[in-house]
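Exercise 7. Predict the joint structure of the components listed below.
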Amino acid sequence: MPAYIARRFMLMLLTLFGMSVLIFVLLRLMPGNVADILFDASGFIDPAERARIEEELGLDQPVVTQYVQWIGALLCGDLGFSYVSERPAIEEILPRIPVTAQLAAWSLLFSVVLGVPLGVISAVRQNTGLDYALRLVSLSGLSLPSFWLGLLILMAFVQWFGFIPIYSETPATLWDGFLMFALPAAAVGFRSSALIMRLTRSSMLEVLRQDFIRTARAKGATEQAVNYRHALRNAVLPVVTIIGIEAAFLIGGLIVTETVFNIPGLARFLVEAILWRDYPIVQNLVMLIAVVVVVVNFLVDMLYAVLDPRIRYSD
Amino acid sequence: MATMRTLVQPVDHAAELGRAGANVTGGGSALLHLAGRHPLGLLGLVIVVVFVLVAAFAPLLATYDPLATNAAASLAQPGGQHMLGADFMGRDLWSRIIYGARISLAVGIASTVLGCVIGAAVGLVSGYWGGWVDLVVQRVNDVLQALPLLVLALVMAASLGPSLANTIIAISIPVVPHVARVVRASTLSVREMPFVEAARAEGMGELQIALRHVLPNTLAPVIVLSTAQLGSAILTEASLSFLGLGIPEPYPSWGRMLSESAAEYVRTAPWLVIFPGLAISLVIFGTNLLGDAVRDILDPRERS
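Solution:
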């Protein structure tokens, strides 16, 4: 097990290194840099001024030098300066983390609370009308783009209450936070809950087919006991693993939903930074996302081994 | 005990054979079989076919030129001259949605096919020849899979620049590692099969064995994966266009119609929000239903 963890950890570092190279190269492929965008905005191009800006930002250096400078600084905790606001990137990124983290947490909670019970019901009542109805609901959940669902929710809200909910500074109580994030979290979480529901259903069906379930029935256990004491306990394990997939899934939903609801979080900031060619922000944010996804997947693998004593990683 | 359960069910062989499709003889009976066994899959197929027909016959179905602006019709309500209303520039929403089907399906299908072809080639090479190529491919796959699909597509789309072809490439890249992984895994098992050894004994070249004997035997999971990916590719195009990094003007894209109409028209012109979103959701719903049925048919392990 320690050898396995060490190996997984090294692979994780290798992946993150590869990611940093990929992102760096992709950003340098982008047509136009921030100097072009600034000149686009002002409507004329002064070559001398342009060269000065590029020199100031280090854009005239060879790509390899730029990369080494970025990684060197990053390892020392220095994220550089935003080209657009000219403030340290860390000051732009840090305050946005709690906003997105809260939204992500509410969305995840929403998706689990809705997805797991519905998945269990769907499996227990397999091939009944209820099962078909729930499967259709989950399929439509997977088919609704979160940004459209977000717009529909906004529309319904405006229809009933006459105004558009506006994001305010960090809420005072948990309840305030819930009220503020409930609508966007529903827009992001509905799609994820559909995914959780499908996986819970198939995992539950898999377990219900096994011998020990038949044994439990044979010894006279009630339907309730078979479903919840014997089956569900074994079926939730694979559901835990999808938290890793969820993390990646949620981030995609957050990007569009923060844009729809005008929430000043990291995800919307990433899109803005990409549109502005703000390299220091984009490359550090994308690295942050990659770290989150890779670390979550690593932790989920470990958690899986802890939760299920039958699993022992070797080699 | 409330209900008595039979532990061992008697097998109805004729019914089992019918369910497995033993009496399917041609196209017509295959459709009937599909309708009986996978009614939702048939519904999905119908939805997708309808959208394909709409895209193919867009000029016949559209009532206006999708790009023609008309100041007098700005934000016209549904009904009357414009069936589904018109946008701020007075462009007919129905015609734009009809032509939008072309963009959505073309980008979705092209990027899925491109991603699958590259992925299958990469997976075959890495699984069949192994060695350091395999090692490098696997590490590159790890990197590509460490980013959420939309983030990778966003960065790709931004770095390639806005155009129809670049959007297709940006959406196809995240598909590659998934397909490569699946093809590599089946290649590893297929290349150990006796018929591969037989082909080699006959003096067949390695490349020919890989292409003629190994590749065809790895395709079933790729077909399953590609139908599942189609909906996700369509969704990614809509999301990219919604965020302003997808299909550029003047192509009518459903995602961009929504971003143009976003927050401000939620109050004043809800039809601009409802109809394009409905089109996106319906076509993805169709591909998801179809994808599920294809998986059930081709991948017996997933059967319930």
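Discussion. The CA atoms of residues 174 and 263 of chain A lie 18 Å apart.
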